[in-house]
Amino acid sequence: MTAEPIHFVKMQGAGNDYVYIDCFSEPTPQDPAALAPRIADRHFGVGGDGLVLVMPSDVAAARMRMFNADGSESEMCGNGVRCVAHLVVSRGRAPAGTVTIETGRGVLALEVVRTGPRGSQVRVDMGGPLLEAERIPVVFEPMAGRVVDAACPALGSPEPWWDAVGLDPRMTCVSMGNPHVTFYCRDVAGVPLESIGPRIETHAIFPRRVNVHFVQVLADDRVRMRTWERGSGITMACGTGASAVCVSGVLTGRTGRRIVAELPGGPLTLEWGGSGPVFMTGPAEEVFEGTWWGS
């Protein structure tokens, strides 16, 4: 049992939902890694893809700490940071417009436009992608080079579903402060994500595990993607993942520099000029508030 009840805000960005604790007004949990699996449990807790703490910062309007549903802490969450920026503005801790949020990736700048009392449209400067193998990290030769359309031992031997979905078994790896691997195929709906996702996530070539994305190119400026998130499993959306997919499309020549990514939870708009930061635009919405008594 928790010693004290916890007031929370449930928020979602393109269906990527987290339990948010506003630590400006609520006590900071003593052990958020242990709390995350309990409060994010969809049957015995509030339910969500994880836990996000919105904390005071010495260098930004707020600091974000994000914990996956398994309790592991992640460096960044693109959908999560949009929701943090909305929360900071909606609670009067920063004016709408440019808002800075401290993350494990560094301090990010976000443009917040209110769309209603419980929602905002937010454009995020996600920072520049990290492309060298050792910085992602991925154990690959040559370690100092980029991993673009490269053979992927994590997939294992060919399986019948490869042909069924038109899988290109080559991988492209990108870090957006957290590691991502992208594969392209003809039909993302047919990918057995629940089995192949965890196999790739935990493979030895990814020493810090990895977020896994399968992508179907619909047009030069539009893709459809499904995601297995490190530590959370299948999710409705992944903002850093969509950013990595935008970068991967440019690096491999499959898509242009501005795309709309169709995710199960809704669309996100991504832009990358081939160098410099990736920009992501999408919604941030409050779903409900409540008090969790622990279990």
CA distance, first residue to last residue: 5 Å
Number of helices: 5
General shape = globular
> In the CATH hierarchy, what is the architecture of the largest domain at level 2?
Roll
Helix content: 10-25%
Query: What string, H for helix and E for strand, traces the elements in order?
Result: EEHEEEHEEEHEEHEEEHEEE
The CATH topology label of the largest domain is: Diaminopimelate Epimerase, Chain A, domain 1
Beta fraction: 35-45%
* Number of separate strands: 16
Tell me about the biggest sheet? 8 strands, mixed, barrel
CATH class of the largest domain: Alpha Beta
Computed structural class: alpha+beta
Are there runs of 5+ residues with pLDDT below 50, and where?
Answer: none
Radius of gyration: 18 Å
Work out the count of structural domains: 2
Quaternary structure type: single chain
Q: CATH-wise, what's the superfamily of the largest domain?
A: Diaminopimelate Epimerase, Chain A, domain 1
As laid out across the biggest beta sheet, the strand order is 1-2-3-4-6-7-8-16
Task: Please state the average pLDDT score.
Answer: 95
Task: Walk me through the structure.
With 295 residues, the protein is of the alpha+beta class. Strand 10, helix 4 and strand 11 form a beta-alpha-beta unit. It folds into 2 domains: 128 residues, Diaminopimelate Epimerase, Chain A, domain 1, CATH 3.10.310.10; 144 residues, Diaminopimelate Epimerase, Chain A, domain 1 (Roll). It has an 8-stranded mixed β-barrel. The protein is built from 5 helices and 16 strands. The model has no long low-confidence stretch (mean pLDDT 95).
